[in-house]
Amino acid sequence: MGRFILNRMLWVIPTMIAISIVAFAIITLPPGDYVDRYAAVLAAQGDYMDDVRKEQMREQYGLDRPWPVQYVNWISDAVLHGDYGWSFEQERPVSEVIWERLSLTAILSLSTLFFTWIVAIPIGIYSAVRKYSLTDYLFTTLGFVGLALPNFLLALALMYITYLISGEAAGGLLSPQYLDAPWTLGKCVDLLKHIWIPILVLGTAGTASIIRTIRANLLDELRKPYVLTARAKGVPEARALMKYPVRHAMNPFVSGLNDIFVNIISGETIVAIVLGLQTTGPLLYQALRAEDSFLAATLIMFLGILGMIGTLFSDILLAWLDPRIRRQFTRLGKAG
Questions:
Q1: Is the entire prediction scored with pTM above 0.85?
Q2: Average of pLDDT values for 299-309?
Q3: End-to-end CA distance of the chain
Q4: Cα 10 to Cα 97: distance, rounded to the nearest angstrom
Q5: CB atoms within 10 A of CB 114
Q6: Distances (CA, A) of 125 to 73, 121, 134
């Protein structure tokens, strides 16, 4: 299994190269660039930019070169020096812009992930064991509501309720005085005061989906002969349930974790805009609108990295849960 995981990790390098090429090509190949958009904004304000000035600006930012040359320069600086280019819109290095947002995004994403698991897994198991009970019907109804309710609508409702109760606007992850401040105990406390709303909003749909998945899979497992045999031999109900049925029922859920990190980050863009969150979703949206090529390509590349991390995490967790998969991984590793 260790050899198989090592082989999978080695595939990260060519995959990352392919992702970076596609990400950069998607941003730079369409007609127009940041200079054209900037000129259009100036024209709307009554300030005309002539062709000479446009070419000078393109030469300054390195946009006058063919996109393969731009890509090679960008990726080589990123790998060798950690320099991801210049953000035209922010007028700062891309690395400075991204790291400010990535820390808050990581905190929000992991908190939402743990909230989803802590709530959804026990409820899914309970609903399967107590199927067709009043509680099962209640959780099923709540699950359908969670799947059907748009996240941004729930965000607006929670913001309104919070404002009615506290009299303060519930937007953002931090208060204005802590945005550029170093991390202290006061900043952490302020983050905890704000983060519960986005966690609840982002975790609602994911929790509802996981509940339905685990319930359906566990119902199938509980009907299988090995469970009936274990009960007939007098195995305690909790052991008969947790030893194999729950672990096997988790397989489809775990196999779907390969894109959960990407979904949390990319799927929170609309919610982040509504709530005014200082995360990467709105930053990527604005970079795409402004044709801020280096910033947008870097963010898309980081989303690809998260996808690969999620896939590797899913494979390792599947092997830990299911001995059959461990044996399969071992055979594949020896074959490789």
A1: no
A2: 80
A3: 11
A4: 30
A5: 12
A6: 52, 6, 15
